[in-house]
């Protein structure tokens, strides 16, 4: 079964996004369900809108993972983290990417094309993509922190009525 994933970029990250898209489809057996930027100029000054759209795609359970590529990956992840149930991290190395997924069940990573070359970006994506969070083997404090994060989201953010899954806060 193919893993469904969202991918987006700004104008700086366009070429890397296109190469990563091909890599995900051909090497990782992914199905891209959201890819709104079809040419570089469509990504200019759009990270906030794209973060809002990607968050909704994930909340509606059209996919459970997302990647954004720009200069650093930071601004996008700041924006998408404002959405109920979304956990995103800008990552610059494979270990941080792996721990983002295994410790925090991060659904979205931000990547910087000005930070890392494409071959290293593939290693980062592999570390995050290849080993999903597993509630049976996860550390107890990771599971407790996810429940605390859900409580925080419920207290601080408005949960949209269209959220179609538990957003990875707990086992299904």
Automatic annotation (TrEMBL):
InterPro entries with a match to the protein in the record: RpiB_LacA_LacB, RpiB_LacA_LacB_sf, SPI_LacAB/RpiB
Keywords for the protein's UniProt record, in alphabetical order: Isomerase, Lactose metabolism
Single annotated GO MF: intramolecular oxidoreductase activity, interconverting aldoses and ketoses
Keyword Coiled coil applies: no
Pfam families xref list: LacAB_rpiB
GO process terms (BP): lactose metabolic process
Domain of life: Bacteria
Repeat keyword on record: no
PANTHER family per UniProt: RIBOSE 5-PHOSPHATE ISOMERASE (PTHR43732:SF1), RIBOSE 5-PHOSPHATE ISOMERASE-RELATED (PTHR43732)
Family as reported in the entry's similarity comment: Belongs to the LacAB/RpiB family.
Protein name listed in UniProt: Ribose-5-phosphate isomerase
Species per Swiss-Prot/TrEMBL record: Streptococcus pantholopis
